[in-house]
Every structure is written in structure tokens, then in C-alpha cells.
Amino acid sequence: NINMKLLRIAAWIGLLSVIVWFIVQDSRLKTAAPGFHIMTLELGKNGKDKEMLSAYADVEVGHRTVLCEAVLNTKVDFLFIVCYVACFFMVTYHEMQRQTRNFFNAVLRMNLFFCFVTGALDITENSMLLFDFRHYHSDHAFVSTYWVSLAKWILVVWLLVSIIVSRIVRAILRKSC
């Protein structure tokens, strides 16, 4: 179907474009604020994140602060979420259609659900980060994204490993026949 092919192409182009944008932004930020990485905020649970945000509000990168760049990064991440969830779903579905072993096929079917759970966790994480970016200077409670981010990354690793293992098993079975 031509529409599905276009959707696949759009998802992969979107994914790769956002990755390139993240790489370029990351290199700019490393120059202006050595040590800054959005993952530090996502997985931070040491209680110093609020102070880190306050410091980043004062560091300039180009015509914006590092904190403004972090907000922009988080907003662009919403597009990335749509693209990577779509790509995970397509790759998982493709592998599921070719997997003949019942166990691996069942795992891949379960992973179709996990693709969307991963995206939902990432959206939740981004929403929490945007709240923190907006309220770092006030007395509002700082919302740690640690547990949401950890769950998301565990699922991402699970999805990648299960797809790779399924492909390896399929390749081994094909060679043995």
C-alpha cells in the first residue's frame, strides 16, 4: 500500500532529522555549558536539579540561555516521540510477521503495546520537565522525572533487545533448515 510506504518513509525521515537536530544542538550546548546534558535532568534524583536549572538560566548559548535551549529540546522531543514510537511499532510488527517461533511472536505482540507505553512515559517525562523548567525559580515542588525516565529507558532497551534476539533466532533457524 502506497500510503503505508509513505508513512514509513515519513517516520524514518522524521526520526533521523530529529536525531541530527539533537546532535547539532548537543554540540552547541557542550561548548556553552560543559557538562550539560538533558539526560542528567531526566535521570537526576540527587536533589540538585533545581539548582542546576537555576544556573542554566544564566548561561548564554547564542542568543538564548541554556535553559531556553533545554525547553526547545524538550518540545522537539515530542516530535521525536511520535517518530520513534512509529518506527518501533513498524519494526516490531514487521519482525512479528516473520517470526515463526510462538514464544518470540508472543513477546513481539506484547512489545506492540510496550511501544505505546514507552511513548506515553516519554510524554509524561517531557511534561514533568517542562513544569520544572517553568517553575525552577519558585517555591513550587520540583518534580523528579527519575522513575518515569527509568521505566521508559528499561522499555526502550527491552524493545531493542527483543527485536535483535528475535532476528538472530530467525536467522539461525533459517540457516539450520
Uncertain spans, ≥5 residues at pLDDT below 50?
A: none
**Spatial strand order of the main sheet:** 1-2
User: From the helix content, strand content and strand pairing, which structural class follows?
Assistant: mainly alpha
Quote the distance from N terminus to C terminus.
32 Å
Instruction: Indicate the overall shape.
Output: elongated
Question: Can you walk through the features of this model?
Answer:
The protein is an all-alpha fold and 177 residues long. Helices cover 80% and strands 2% of the residues. The chain has helices spanning 2-32, 38-42, 49-56, 66-98, 102-135, 146-176, and strands spanning 60-61, 64-65. Strand 1 (60-61) and strand 2 (64-65) form a beta hairpin. It is elongated, with a radius of gyration of 19 Å. The relative contact order is 0.12.
